[in-house]
UniProtKB/TrEMBL annotation:
Example GO molecular function: ABC-type transporter activity
UniProt keyword annotation of Transmembrane present: yes
Transmembrane regions listed in the UniProt entry: 20-38, 60-79, 112-134, 140-164, 176-197, 248-269
Record-linked Pfam families: ABC2_membrane_2
Organism: Haloplanus vescus
GO cellular-component term (any): plasma membrane
Keyword Protease attributed: no
Keywords assigned: Membrane, Transmembrane, Transmembrane helix
PANTHER family: ABC TRANSPORTER PERMEASE (PTHR43471), ABC TRANSPORTER PERMEASE PROTEIN NOSY-RELATED (PTHR43471:SF1)
Protein name: ABC-2 type transport system permease protein
Domain of life where this protein originates: Archaea
Length: 274
């Protein structure tokens, strides 16, 4: 299949990026440092699941750095080749525009999966060496895979912007806006609504309760959906205990973010004059 050739070349190009290498090294070092600092005091024990689900690793590192690395990996995927003129050459080969878009999503997804796996490899060695840490290998590998899926969701968003953008500047603006909206500013976006619903309740014209609106907002953010799924997974309750419908909705929302942005970008790309 021709998308495989696009994905292979795109993966090789992405992993050679200095920005990607630098951010990947930073992620490896910070996760390793966090794992070391989270080690228990003498005479105490802790599970690797508790460390992974701590605010230090989950909130301060994974849901902060992984979206940033993914957006840096993918924001220039299509528009960069379009502006350099290499996109016309690529499409002159037996590649359709869909092959190009989804090949780049897959290639850049591999490029984000590589630093994620590397980032959790060294902490795994720390957990094995420290006797006071109960290391759950299966859960650790599963959490690593979920983190990679979070990265893939942001890669798909960035490729969607890159496909629809008319210039690198707009692609960069879309990537930066996405990052700030979903990572540092999402709480500020929700706060006025939380205050409004808390004081006056849900408006009569809205067929949802205030709690349902807030849950929907939490699900709309890929990092929020990731936290729901990963938290349930590390507690051994994914799809079996707790709010199962919320867990299923969060999983589906991550899939929506992976599929919909590239498809929307492709719809515009099919009609674009290169």
């Amino acid at each position: 299949m021709t998308w495989q050739a696009v994905a292979r070349k795109d993966f090789e190009d992405a992993v050679r990026s200095r920005w990607v290498l630098g951010l990947s090294v930073l992620f490896v070092l910070l996760v390793s440092l966090a794992a070391y600092l989270a080690r228990p005091a003498p005479g105490q024990t802790i599970s690797s699941n508790q460390i992974l689900n701590s605010r230090l690793i989950r909130d301060a590192l994974v849901t902060t750095l992984i979206p940033l690395i993914a957006l840096v990996v993918a924001y220039n995927a299509v528009i960069g080749e379009r502006e350099s003129g290499s996109l016309k050459l690529l499409l002159s080969l037996p590649h359709s525009r869909a092959d190009v878009v989804f090949g780049k999503v897959i290639g850049r997804s591999g490029a984000i999966a590589a630093p994620v796996c590397a980032g959790f490899l060294l902490p795994a060695l720390i957990f094995v060496i420290v006797p006071a840490v109960n290391f759950d290998v299966a859960s650790y590998l599963g959490y690593t895979a979920l983190t990679a899926i979070l990265g893939v969701a942001f890669v798909a968003i960035a490729v969607g912007f890159s496909t629809a953008a008319s210039s690198s500047r707009r692609a960069v603006g879309g990537a930066i806006g996405t990052y700030f909206l979903f990572v540092p500013l999402w709480g500020a976006v929700q706060l006025p609504l939380q205050l409004y619903l808390g004081m006056s309740g849900s408006p009569s014209w809205l067929p949802l309760t205030g709690q349902q609106v807030l849950r929907m907002l939490r699900l709309l953010n890929p990092t929020g959906s990731f936290k729901i799924v990963s938290n349930a997974f590390l507690q051994g309750a994914l799809y079996t205990q707790g709010n199962v419908s919320m867990q299923v909705s969060a999983t589906l929302m991550l899939l929506v973010w992976i599929l919909v942005p590239p498809l929307l970008g492709l719809l515009w790309f099919q009609e674009a004059d290169l």
